[in-house]
Amino acid sequence: MNYHINTKYTKSISSCQQHCFIVVSLFFMLLYHNVNAQKIIAGPIIGAVSDSSAKLVFMTDKPIHATIKCISAADTLIQTHRTSTDDVYYVNACQINSRLKSNTNYEIQINITGNDSTYKSSFKSFPSTKETSLFSFTLGSCTEQHYNDSIFFEMKKHQPLFFLQIGDWLYANNFNERKFYYAESIEHQKELYEKRYEMPNLKKMLASTPIDFMFDDEDAVFDDFSKNTYTHVQQVDNATQISEIAYPDSLRKNVIEGYHTFFPYYNHLPNQAYHSFVCGNAEFFVVDTRSTRDANTASFVKKNKHYAYKVPNQHLLLDTLQWNWLLSSLKKSQAQWKFIVSGVTFNKSYKDVFDIALLKPAQNKKLANGMTGLSIAAGLSTMWFAFPETQIGLLNFCHDNQIKNVIVLSGDAHTAAIDNGANAGFPELMAGGLAQKNSRLAAIIKNQLHLNLWNQGGQGIGNNNFNDAFGKVDINGNQSVVLSCIDKYGKTICSYEVKDGFIPKKYTLKPMLSINKIRAFKHALRIKLK
């Protein structure tokens, strides 16, 4: 069969095909460009905020050049910063310190060369020391990544001026299933920070909320680590054994270097993490209670089948450098409210629980939670009371120098509770279960041991609320501070108002076990003591 071909039509088709080919090619080139364009993979995160400055950190998938703008709520350009990420970790740390006004909202805009997207973040600068303003902030610890982070959805509703993550945030052993030395390298630290910055609800909150952070044990080594070792508890032939296992010196270096590289930290001494900052009429002393302490179980001495407890002289939670810094800083502080931010529980009356757990009949007795008295004692030995020279020294220093309104904010315990200072020494808000299985420790102490160590309430104390929970602090000018524990559904579990003027009592070391503690022990474990 013969066909007649219209050459004019054919040329028209050819021209159309060429046009389509060009359009499709441009589309795929643009798609390829967008897929391969440099981009932010973690952050941006705002931290180290003051009444006049802040710090920005973000990570990218490759080296980039970027323009960063800081714009006030009145659409006034405050600062333009042109920057590049480093060639090793692809992280950018930018100091925002030009013409910021106190108590003012700001927006950060990041534009990366070769990427049409604008990345945004916002924050509010802190009130100045001359402003007696009302503000609130939130806090907590123990954000296990195998659990969901929905608590930050609720926390965001409270519009905190900032958020304090008091340790147990990175949880590297569970992410990579490593048993022990998991702060193995700076690269590993980067991986962990990336994962946390990208937790969905936390990420949404941090888009408008500055953060401060201090690492705790789960952020560095398997558990309960000190300056040179970590505590190992195991069952051998139906007996509990405790020991300290040394780790490489590089571990502490990696943890602190990772903190300084991937987190917007407050500047302090090189090779240290502890620091302080001021917000309005409040000052915060964020202590490193892990990487300078003496070995937790140095006070345990094995005699035959049991352990005795004798605290050696100079058994210190904080080394001399940090200790002197803390005391001098507290004494010099002009703030109305002074917060000691501690990764571990401060409550001095936990010594009562420790004494009960360490009684000989309890040391190897299996309790309902599967632990023995000795394993509980080993866990408790990480707290402030187990370092009496440090704890009593701090309380008495504040008493002798009439330093008022010191409040402790703590975590680590996987539960939340409040004491007014009668048991803890200072008023203390413990918020240790942001996203973690609740330990129910405060409830067990109250309901089974009948020791009222958290006299303003907590999880399981007069309630059955063991949901994930966070702490909230409301600063009411110079009049008072309200401490609250709030669960992930917005229910207030307990609350206490600290009035102006609190000064701790004078304390002495009293190692004797009282008859009331022995009775509490008998009631709890239902065994006869000889």
Describe the structure.
With 530 residues, this protein is of the alpha+beta class. The protein has 2 domains: 40-124, Sandwich (Immunoglobulin-like), CATH 2.60.40.10; 134-525, Purple Acid Phosphatase, chain A, domain 2, CATH 3.60.21. The chain is built from 13 helices and 23 strands. The strands form 6 sheets. Strands 10-9-8-21-22-23 form a 6-stranded mixed beta sheet. A 6-stranded mixed beta sheet has the order 13-14-17-18-20-19, covered by helices on one side. Helix 4 crosses helix 6 and helix 8 (350-357) crosses helix 13. The longest helix is centred in the first third of the chain and has 30 residues, at 7-36. The N and C termini lie far apart (115 Å). Residues 1-14, 20-35, 512-516 and 525-530 have low confidence and may be disordered.
